Amino acid sequence: MFTVKFNEVDKSTNIAITDITGKIIYNNRVTAKINNIDVSENAKGIYIIKISKDGNIYNSRIIIK
């Protein structure tokens, strides 16, 4: 499990997580400033988290061990 925190949240904020093949394993519209995401059922490996807000997209890698 990991946490994503926001200073502000609006209707356009979305979090998506994909594996390295592009398969979406998590996709959710953000409704709170603090978001706990459980990835414990996913295989170990490298994933991409994409946060989109107001037309801007932020990408980062996460590693599940």
Features:
65 residues, Immunoglobulin-like, four-stranded antiparallel beta sheet, two-stranded antiparallel sheet, mainly beta, single chain, 58% strand, 6 strands
CATH class: Mainly Beta
How many angstroms separate the termini?
A: 11 Å
Q: In terms of per-residue confidence, which ranges show pLDDT below 50 for 5 or more consecutive residues?
A: none
What's the shape? globular
Number of domains: 1
Helix content: under 10%
What is the number of beta strands? 6
Please give the radius of gyration in angstroms.
12 Å
- CATH-scheme architecture: Sandwich
Structure overview:
The protein has one domain (2-64): Immunoglobulin-like. Strands 3-2-5-6 form a 4-stranded antiparallel sheet, with no helix packed on it. A two-stranded antiparallel ribbon has the order 1-4. The mean pLDDT is 92. 0% of the residues lie in helices and 58% in strands. It is an all-beta fold and 65 residues long. It contains no helices and 6 strands.
Concise summary:
The chain contains no helices and six strands.
